[in-house]
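Go through this:
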Amino acid sequence: MPNAPDGWQDDLTDFHEEISNGNHPIDMASFDKALENIAQHSSALKDGRQILEIGCSSGLLLRRLLKTFPKAVVVGVDIIEKTLGKLSKILKQEGIFIPLLRFDITSCPLSENSYDVIVALNVLEHIKDHKRALQEIYRILKPGGIFVFEVPYGKELFDEYDRQLHHYRRYSDREIVQLLENAGLRKVYFSHLGFLLYPFFWCVKKWRSRRTGAQKPISNSRLSRNLIALSSGLIMRMIFQMELMLGRLVTYPYGIRCVGVFKKP
């Protein structure tokens, strides 16, 4: 199949699923935080409204959305045809029926004021025209609806690893907040994920950028796979669980990823 817009490819989806499979500590924490934010900031879900996930990939979050909000209408969107075809077959075998749509969010075919909740975890950094994507997200959100997002933090940490993952950027707090507000959305909640591990993450990114440069693809990199294995252990799971618990009381000033909830007035 030809590459999708903005250069995303099937092999990158396969690589993401191989290293995570929904069990990597930061991805598990990411899903938990998103579900918590939706439950806390969207009272509309009590009436069984519509949730749209952009970048649904293998459907890991879709399943959890459906389980957590059984009255909601959950819809998945992705840009990769192969991914959606595979997911459709698996969900059908599991007896799960969720509408799956394929389109580019920068040219969204959906009607305005359609969804109560839109979720996009680690999606915006893959979109060259992220301003246009946010304009479309604003357009299809219902008034009072929320946008739950996550993006990589730390502009200065952008490196070859990001480029090979087809990231166009990492974000500063100021940049992502300004982008969302310029699109017409208003901040409800903003924090970070990976606060406790950020010093280690910063050191690894800086060290790896000096060591690797523009070498072989990350999917074949022993260094990348060793770091992934190291970050997938029980201790990391405990750290993220502790961070999530503390995060209910405080917001974190920095982290591996920015997380937030913005609302359409």
About this structure: The domain at 5-263 is CATH 3.40.50.150 (Rossmann fold). Strands lie at 50-54, 73-78, 100-102, 115-121, 141-152, 186-193, 257-263. The two ends are 40 Å apart (CA to CA). The CA atoms of residues 152 and 257 lie 4 Å apart.
